[in-house]
Specification:
This protein has 3 helices and 7 strands, in the order αβββββββαα. It is an alpha+beta fold.
Length: 180
């Protein structure tokens, strides 16, 4: 099911997401399907469960860095834990929850992390460059952190008008994007 993207100002984006108990197979599979469908519909490369109003520790990543499109398959990460961060990259980021705003954000160049798959099995990953950036961005969503929290105070002040405009559509703590 296609989910609506929560926008800046929505309370779900600022909550610390809860771990997912792995005994809820059907719920996990449905959520992962919804994440994948929504990610693909909105043409993103990463989407965290809080961005669709679910405060649980799951995110989806579309591996845009794999050159052969036929081999690309959206990956689901459940209850991820960052293990090690190395190096620095400073690249531009955007976010489906903060449309039309892009800023450079410093992130680790390489990230080692572990996460569960849909069957509850833990797997360890080493991500570099864009994959590392997407993992850190989506992981931040699980802790209620947005990429605009990581830019300089001066840049954040310059964006304040745009952010306020997005947040102004929030009603009773919910801010849902209209479908394009």
């Amino acid at each position: 099911m296609l989910e609506k993207i929560r926008l800046y100002g929505d309370e779900s984006l600022r909550k610390i997401a809860k771990p997912i108990p792995m005994h809820r197979d059907d719920e996990i599979k449905n959520l992962s399907k919804n994440l994948i469908e929504s990610l693909e519909r909105f043409d993103g490369i990463g989407l965290a469960a809080p961005q669709i109003g679910r405060s649980v520790r799951m995110f989806a990543v579309y591996p845009l860095w794999i050159e052969d499109e036929k081999k690309r398959k959206t990956m689901i990460f459940i209850n991820p834990t960052l293990l090690e961060l190395e190096g620095i990259q400073n690249e531009e980021e955007g976010c489906l929850s903060i449309p039309e705003i892009f800023e450079k954000v410093k992130r680790a160049k390489t990230v080692s992390f572990k996460a569960q798959n849909l069957f509850g099995k833990w797997k360890q990953y080493i991500a570099t460059d864009l994959f590392a950036r997407v993992v850190q961005h989506e992981y931040d969503h699980l802790d209620g952190i947005l990429f605009v929290d990581k830019i300089s105070l001066i840049k954040r002040r310059l964006l304040q008008g745009k952010l306020k405009k997005i947040a102004a559509t929030t009603k009773r703590g919910i801010n849902i994007a209209s479908l394009h």
